[in-house]
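Appendix C reproduces, verbatim, an entry submitted by the partner laboratory led by Prof. M.T., so that reviewers can inspect both the input and the predicted structure.
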Amino acid sequence: MKPVSRSNDSAIFTIGGMHCAACVRRVENAIRELEGVEEAAVNFASEKASVIFDSTKISLEEIRGKVQELGFKVGEIAKDLPAGEREIVLAVGGMNCAACVRRVEGLLGNLPGVRQAEVNFAAGTAIVRFDQGATNPEQFRAALEGAGYAWLGIREELSTDREQEARRREMRRLTAEFILAAVLSAVIMAGSMPHMFSWLRGIPHQPLLVVLFALTTLVLAVSGRRFYVGAWTSLRHGTADMNTLIAIGTFSAWLYSTAVTFLPGVFASPGGEREVYFDSAVMITALILLGRLLEARARSRTSDAIRKLMGLAAKTARVIREGEELDVPIDLVVKGDRVVVRPGEKIPVDGVVTDGASSVDESMLTGEPLPVEKGPGDEVIGATVNKTGYITLLAGNVGAQTVLAQIVQMVEKAQGSKAPVQRLADKVASVFVRVVIAIAVVTFAAWYAFGPEPAFIPAMLSFMSVLIVACPCSLGLATPTAIMVGTGKGAELGILIKDAGSLEQAHRLTTVVFDKTGTLTRGKPRVTDLVTCKGVQEDALLKLAGSVEKASEHPLGEALVQMAESWGLKLNLPERFQALSGFGVEAELQGSAVLLGNARLMAERGIAIEELEQEARQLLEAGKTVLFIAENGRLIGLAALTDTLKEHSVEAVAALKNIGLEVVMLTGDQRRTAETIGRQAGIDRVVAEVLPGGKADEIKRLQEQGRIVAMVGDGINDAPALAQADIGIAIGAGTDIALEASDITLVQDDLRSLVTAIGLSRRTMRTIKQNLFWAFIYNILGIPIAAGVLYPFFGLQLKPVFAAMAMAFSSVSVVANSLRLKRFRTELSSR
């Protein structure tokens, strides 16, 4: 991949008209060759292209134009926008001419905060890009209705509904073309064998052939048109694809049969018989259309996860404006709106509860079946369900910024990405069609030279069979269909996978490294012991420590503050506070210099700890974290705290070890405490007293030993280690999901999801390998058989009709095998 420049932009757009892996390769190469394009990935299964480009050198329209120049249809474009900006598609009614277009563009473009407005008269839409802080869709509605136009609502930047409608139209077209081909195929086959049907025996042979010619020409012109148009487009650009093979094969059968029909003296056999292959041409067309129809239906199921996620979103919201409760479409909710949610309703947007209390079902996000209690000040997430109470919330994230929308975007991005394992298939696809045509020509020549008389007939049949049996479609579908189903299934199970590369890498893991606090443990320690030096009172020690830690957000500090407040102690904020990463904190409190931290901090500052050393050792051996407290250069006491393992940590660690992975715990905590927690969790290797900056170095050391390492942390504090690891895995819940901080995000705060994620990766990669094996082996065996290698031994020659059946089956079987991933649950096979 080329380096990414700072002026980079990115876009995702749909591409129609691709029929095989060769098409994918052609589009990718054409885009990548454009100056300013950094990277391009085309997904055959989802029919989408993801492009990274330098916007100072090339525009989206130029990229779009290049794809259209190749003969493909380009759909709508979704563009990454700067922070604070949003792009929406408005459906506008009442436009009658080009003058209306200019008028609507002027109305919208002149509103404050609107960056761009483009109107499509034919589609009845307006694409508006605007600053969310300066304007909102309500103002667009007022401007349009004030000018006499109809507001028909907002469509998403890449509308799933419209995309599905386009797919449905294509399915209807395919179905109609298949029915025509199938019905006329039956008639043509009957006409090709008149001796088998008494009602045809009286019809003269020549008029019957003319009728067959007319019907076959109709089928190829209507049902087979897509193949010929595609082949011609490829030819004009000096390339070849699946359409080329089908077009040459069926046209050869039609051309030979037409010549036999109208030039009987030239092509009649010595006995005077005239054999035509109109039935082969139409049957091949019908079977390939049937294969594409079945394939399209199966492929549509690979996007079920996206449709399910999109279906979770609320369609309307009840907002309070000018003292009234109004039901408005979800697109019209803006940040800062007060939203009312009644019992049993979906929460429409992300926000914070301002009034009322309720229990909220967050299972769509976390997978946890038990509702979560919410009250004033608590955050809620759009698409979760308000179970019992009547609440009012302040809208926060709306539109594309909601947690659900980000998850949908992440899944779409992952489904559109390309796994490294597909490189082999791409390389094969780039030369596949040319090689197949060459093999077909050689096959024709060999049969014509050495085949039985009349040699031209078996030569032509073998030529057609080789062309038809070859199937780059299955090569193109092998990886993306499995990736789409696998990442979609992951989203259903609360596992968000950033891209196909991460999914592939996860199955190679040899070592899993855990952070301790908040990952293996609950991250909510409690104070268990206070030990004071001679002449110091416990409440004075706790008040001093609690006051210092009041300025801290560390879990250990919060535990000291909570205990001090529970004792009724009045805490003071320090005048000066500094966190010493990996050591503790230092502060100035009411004229005193205070240090609170581990033994290394005390040693560094020259503070003797011998008075409490024995007590500290005993507490450390019990698996507790010890914090020494010093005031004005003298030790005054210590606090011992403990954290407990999460409910399923031991089970998850055991499962990881059972499947052959090494498990390591990496923590900045004191060694004895860390080793105790490690023993409780079942972890043999514990690396303790590591500063935050040194965690990445520890990961690097493991990688230098040849290990493939996953780092599991919170996605924020462990960012350097997550970035260094081969796979960074963040554990989050609710609005704390670190979508961009990791390669894989586990939505549920449950380490068993990690075992599920690795299992899903292994199952997906096994499916991809199965798909690629069958795609390759199908062609490795199918092409020689079609060429006639079995004829000298068994007298068998593969008919073109059977070749078409086999080709259609190969594509459908690859998609069907990928769809088996939808049955994946949480069990992890050890194989």
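Residues 752-787 form the longest helix (36 residues). Additional entries are available on request from the coordinating office.
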